[in-house]
Write a structure and sequence with these properties.
alpha/beta; Rossmann fold; 5-stranded parallel beta sheet
Length: 212
């Protein structure tokens, strides 16, 4: 099996930028790597992404939102993540099940037992080897986004985003072996160096990258 690395964080934290940077670094080293994202990563996922993220007059209930994300994840796991891991690839995913826990659980306040059951179904037993949380104060993260281009989640009030950040930090504290928490207010280069310092030993341990 390959290595599964996920990137998590609130709005404007820079996780997509860092996920792509890690993908480019591994590609340059000749390491088989797959970069994907949620919601999306498949044709179905992209269609669901459009429904979930666009701002419109249509109201999506928290429970419906939860199940739409789950449908996208089931398809992504089946079509992309599991096959890539079975081929020994490093899989980098921009958001995964932890996003559901914090956005629909802490943010939307859907019952956590429902969240847990839904995530178990959607992930099909796939769990990240490493989850990188780019942590940033809510106001600073949102300030990085152009207000005219904000999606359904970015346009939520500050209390929603505060709950999301709190949820991430609680998850990371409860399972610190899997999580790497990084101050996302640092420079892109410094964040990238911290990520590589954590990823490189994983690659060496799995003999994906030669020592030295």
């Amino acid at each position: 099996m390959g290595i599964f690395v996920t990137f998590e964080g609130g709005e404007g934290c820079g996780k997509s930028t860092q996920a792509k940077a890690l993908w480019r670094k591994l590609s340059r080293l000749g390491i088989p790597v797959e970069l994907t994202y949620e919601p999306g990563g498949t044709t179905l996922g992209k269609e669901l992404r459009h429904l979930l993220k666009k701002r419109s007059q249509a109201v999506i209930s928290p429970e419906a939102e939860l199940l739409l994300f789950a449908a996208s994840r089931i398809h992504l796991v089946s079509e992309v993540i599991r096959p890539s891991l079975q081929r020994g690839k490093v899989v980098i995913c921009d958001r995964f099940a932890d996003s559901t826990t914090v956005y629909q659980g802490y943010g939307r306040q859907v019952d956590m037992n429902i969240i847990k059951t839904t995530n178990e179904l959607a992930t099909q037993g796939i769990k990240p080897n490493l989850t990188i949380l780019l942590d940033i104060p809510v106001t600073e993260g949102l300030a990085r986004k152009k207000r005219s281009q904000q999606d359904r989640f970015e346009s939520e009030d500050t209390s929603f985003h505060d709950r999301v950040r709190e949820g991430y930090l609680k998850l990371a504290a409860a399972e610190h072996q899997r999580w790497l928490v990084i101050d996302a207010t640092m420079s892109r280069a410094e964040v990238g160096r911290i990520i590589w310092a954590k990823v490189e030993p994983l690659l060496i341990a799995r003999r994906i990258l030669p020592y030295g």
